[in-house]
Amino acid sequence: MDSATLGLVMVAAIVAWAVWVYNRLVRLRNEIGNAFAQIDVQLKRRYDLVPNLVEVARKYLQHERDTLEAVTRARNTARAAADRAQQAPADGDRIAALAAADGVLGGALARLMAVVEAYPELKADRTMRELAEELTHTENRVAFARQAFNDAVLDHNNAAQHFPSLVVAQLTGFRPAAMLDATASDEERRAVRVQF
C-alpha cells in the first residue's frame, strides 16, 4: 500500500471515528432529555396535587392564609421553572433555577404539613390523608427520576470530557450538562414529611 492510500485510509478512519463519537454524544444528550421528561411527569403530578391539598386545608385553616398562599406561590414558581428547564434540560442555569424553586416548594409544603399537625380535624380528614399519601409517593418518584436524570448527565459528561472524544465534543459544541442537585440549605434538604 502506498503512502497516499495509507493516508486516505487513516483520514477515513479518523472521520468515521469522529462521526461515531458525535452520534454517541447526540444519543447521550437525548437520553438527558428523556430522563428530564420523566422528572417533568412526576413534577407535574406534584404540581397538580398541591392545589388540591391547599383547597382541602383551606376549609380548616382560614386564619393560616399566609401559609396557604406561600405554598401556592412556591408551586407556581416551581412549575414555571420546570417548564423552562424542560425546554433545555442540559442548561445548567435552568436546572439550578428548578432546583432552587423546587427547594422553596418543599419548604413551603413542609411548613403546611407542620400547620396541619396542629389541627386534629384536618389530620383526620380522609381527603387530606389521601392527598398527603399521594404527595409522599410522588416525592419518591421525583427522587428516582432525579437519580436517573443525574445518571444520564454523568454518562453524557463522561463521554464529552474524556480524551480523545473531548476534541469532537468541543468542535461540535457539546458542553457539560448540569446535574439536578438537591439544594444546599438544611431546611430544603429535608424531605417533605407527611404524618397523619
Topology:
Layout: H1 3-60, H2 65-87, H3 92-117, H4 120-124, H5 126-161, H6 165-171, H7 186-189
Helix pairs in contact: 1-2, 1-5, 2-3
Description:
- This protein has about 200 residues and is mainly alpha-helical.
- The protein has one domain (about 45-190).
- The protein has helices at about 5-60, 65-85, 90-115, 120-125, 125-160, 165-170, 185-190.
- The protein starts with a helix and ends in a 7-residue tail after the last helix.
- Residues about 185-190 have low confidence and may be disordered.
What's this model, at a glance?
The protein has helices at residues 3-60, 65-87, 92-117, 120-124, 126-161, 165-171, 186-189.
Spell out the key features of this protein.
196 residues, rod-shaped, mainly alpha, 81% helix, 7 helices
Q: What is the overall silhouette? A: rod-shaped
> Beta-sheet strand percentage?
under 5%
In total, how many domains does the architecture comprise? 1
How far is it from the N-terminal to the C-terminal residue, by CA?
A: 80 Å
What are the low-pLDDT stretches, counting only 5+ consecutive residues below 50? Answer: 184-189
Q: Characterize the biggest β-sheet.
A: none
Number of strands: 0
Rounded radius of gyration (Å): 23 Å
Mean pLDDT: 88
